[in-house]
Each structure stands twice: as C-alpha cells, then as structure tokens.
Amino acid sequence: MTGRQKVLRALGVAIALTLIVASFVNFTTREKPAPLLRLDTPQANSSPVDEGLDFSAPGLDGKQIDLSHYRGHPVIVDFWATWCGPCRKQIPELVALYKKYNKSRGLVVIGVSCDLIQGEGLPAVAPFVKEFRIDYPIALADERLVDDMGVEAIPTTLFLGPDGKIVSRIVGAGHPGEITANAKQLLDGVKGHGSPGKPEDSSGHVVNISVVR
Asked: C or N terminus of the chain, fewer CB within 10 Å?
C-alpha cells in the first residue's frame, strides 16, 4: 500500500467516525416528535345530569314511562310508597298542583312508586292511587332505578326544568307549602331552594329506603 493510499484510508476512517458520532449526538439531543394520536383519556364535556335526567320504567297502566318524553315541559318527579307516612302528607299537594297547572302551564308530575322494593307490592298501589285521587302518571321503580337516580330516602321530590336538568330537590315531606313554592319557581324559570342534602332520620318527615328495603 502506497503512502497516498494510507492517507486516503485514514481520512475515510476519520470521516466515518465523525459521521457516526454526529448521528449519535443528533439522536440523543433532538426533540422527540409529537405523537400522531393522543393517548390520554379525553374529559367528558358534560355529565349525565348536565344533559338532563332520564329514566324508563313500567307504568301502573302497563305502558312504559320515559322521562325524556316530557322534554320541553317543567316536570316534578316524586319518589314515594304507599306505606310511607310522609309521602301521604305531600301527595295531596302534588295532586292539587297537577290539577291547577297541567293544562294551564304544561306542568308534568310523575309519581314513582317504590312499593316493588318494599311493602305489599303492586296490589297496594292501585287502591292507593284511587283513594288519593292521583291522576298523574305512576311509574313503578325497582332498586336499580332508585340507585341510578341517587334516591336514598322517600319521599324525594325532584323539580326538573324543560331541559331535564334538576332545578331543585326536596328530601322528606318538607315544610307546609314547600312543594308549591318550588313548583312555582320551576314554572317561572327560577332556580329553586329545595334542599339537595341528605335526609335527616330524626325529623320524622322521611323514610330511609336504603335501610328498609
């Protein structure tokens, strides 16, 4: 090998080593490319409650009751049972509100009986409805429905705006006239002041269904 060949060979080796080092440095220092897909879990835009409360249950008349069917109307949903003393106290007020505002203001009242969960069951419901002259729809709840709705005690009365969102809530029979006051606020589009809190077991105005069922 001539001297010139040795020089060229050494130069080639040096160039190769330089390229290898440069590639390594560039690989370790360059920024990582942005991922093509986001792997993080997207945040939900709204909760089920934000989109409007909904449930489906069989009615006392055998027809299915879908809460979403009443979108566009102010709705009162009352969870009750025939064996619940506080429920008996407030139902006449609901009957009067329905009679007064159903046709004139489009108010919908849905009674959700919990008698299939605890008590004498379906045979007790129809005579009770007749006795109290309830003419609004009656749905029949099971444990899954009350759990999905977050109902822990009865009576629990929900006041829903035309969009299906909860405007106010009363747990227990409430104070005299409280249901009517919340109903009027609902009809006037004013956020109600019904208590969203837990039932007070010592009040005598509520029955904890998480205990009795």
From this structure: N
The answer to whether 79 touches 199, Cβ cutoff 8 Å, is: no
The amino acid that residue 167 corresponds to is V
For residue 113, CA distances in Å to 24, 87, 131 come to 73, 10, 15
10 Å CB burial of residue 19 (0-12, 13-18, 19+) is exposed
Q: Are 141 and 117 in contact (CB under 8 A)?
A: yes
Give the strands of the sheet with 166-171, arranged side by side. 138-140, 108-113, 75-80, 156-160, 166-171
List phi, psi (to 5°) of 160.
-110, 135
Q: Cβ atoms within 10 A of the Cβ of 63, count?
A: 9
Using DSSP's 3-state secondary structure scheme, residue 59 falls into strand
Residues shown for the chain? 213
* Phi and psi at residue 9, to the nearest 5°: -65, -45
- Compute the distance between CA of residue 158 and CA of residue 168 in angstroms, rounded to an integer: 6
Reported as a single tens digit per residue, the pLDDT across 92-117 is 999 999 999 999 999 999 999 999 99
Bond into 155 cis (ω within 30): yes
Torsion 94-99-104-109 (CA) sign: positive
pLDDT at 183 over 90: yes
How many other CB atoms are there within 10 angstroms of residue 53's CB atom? 21
pTM of the predicted structure, to 2 decimals: 0.69
